[in-house]
Write a structure and sequence with these properties.
Elements lengths: L11 E3 L11 H12 L2 E6 L7 E7 L1 H12 L8 H8 L12 H17 L4
Antiparallel strand pairs: 1-2, 2-3
Amino acid sequence: MSEHFDNKFGSERSAKRPLNRNNSSDNNSEFNNGVNEYQKAVALKYDGQTAPRVTASGSGQLADEIIALARELGIPLYENPELTEMLAMLDLGDEIPHELYLIIAQIIALAYNIKAKDPSA
């Protein structure tokens, strides 16, 4: 499951950003480490012709790598734990299910708008 993103965004993704629950309290450090191990990230590719497909998916360290690559490539990140859980059930290369078309379309539209407003994009 270590496939990476195919292109710069314009047309791919839904990566879940890692939860930032770093608390300075020693009582919470063990809990926070457990949470980070179960982080998940999913990347989608959308070519404008077919339904978006899963191009990367992983948890823990792999999720961190997916997120880091997305940031490096300037791909906007969208955090939604419930959506990420649903997408994480798909295999690499799978199209998203019809039931998720609307929410994914809204996320893609938001990402396009963000990119259009960013002069460095």
